[in-house]
């Protein structure tokens, strides 16, 4: 095991008892204009016993892609007013959006200088804005919580909100995901599936993640073969459709309650519209068979299959800004909740990342 990661892992276990935030720290955001958003919100409030003062209702379009003006006037400002009027700015640590709340902000520019971003990633900056901070709209903003494996997430030390989304292809997908989150336990295998060749570093991150977890809990595949139909999976990271050897859209895994997923895929969070069952992942050259403008794997497929959490990207994030598995999975194993585990692994905010799942989902101590 990498000595540095050994230290991080041990420290994480030592302070796991400090990761005790509760539903009192969650703000639930529902779009009153979307029936699906209201249904999900009501179900989550019931199952998690969310305090009613932590239930924020906004009214905006249910379109997945919006302009920055719509984001600012119909999403960010109403949430900011709600937090201020209820004196929740510091108490709230996690914001939970729901299917039916817009997903992505259309912006000018390209590459690392684009003004496009995920709604949820943009919302992470709201705490700082409430305290008077200003941020550029082009490019990503460094995440102050990234890599802080030993630190308790709290304000004002970390001046951001951690934002996750309760979403899937339909209400039943989200309902089942919430139920699984409540049944999460620390058991099963963490699966890391490397691709045949990688010059960018992602395979090295997957190896580091595997080395930072108990050997008996890890499946590490370094061959060109893609893993399908595994059982008792509690964590999974791979290249998705960026692995040329992957030919199937669905993995066919048996996911345990609390299972989380991360992939190095550019557009897996691009939509929550459900593709035809006959649709399969393909290549960019196969223009006739793109879905929602892309041939790549979809975050929502993992939720439909039985995962309890999954990251994704609404537009091109570039590999360096995707969740780093060598932080994500050791954090989750050591006691962090879903929201903190993902955000401790994500380098930038106001960017293309989304995190799907109940922020409070956690697997606890190993069984």
Task: Walk me through what this model shows.
The protein is of the alpha/beta class and 367 residues long. The protein folds into two domains: 17-165; 186-342, Rossmann fold (3-Layer(aba) Sandwich), CATH 3.40.50. Helices cover 27% and strands 18% of the residues. It contains ten helices and 15 strands. Strands 10-9-11-12-13-15 form a six-stranded mixed β-sheet, with helices on both faces. β9, α7 (202-211) and β10 form a beta-alpha-beta unit. It is globular and about 55 Å long.
Strand and helix layout:
Blueprint: H1 3-14, E1 26-31, H2 35-48, E2 55-58, E3 65-67, H3 68-85, E4 94-98, E5 104-106, E6 117-118, H4 119-123, H5 126-130, E7 141-142, E8 162-166, H6 171-182, E9 189-193, H7 202-211, E10 218-221, E11 233-238, E12 255-263, H8 299-305, E13 309-313, H9 325-334, H10 338-343, E14 348-349, E15 353-357
Parallel strand pairs: 1-2, 1-4, 3-5, 4-8, 9-10, 9-11, 11-12, 12-13
Antiparallel strand pairs: 5-6, 7-14, 13-15
Keywords:
six-stranded mixed β-sheet, 367 residues, single chain, Rossmann fold, globular, four-stranded parallel β-sheet, disordered N terminus, alpha/beta
Shape: globular
| Rg estimate, integer Å | 19 Å
Structural class: alpha/beta
Report strand order across the widest sheet.
10-9-11-12-13-15
Give me a quick take on this structure:
By secondary structure, the chain is an alpha/beta fold.
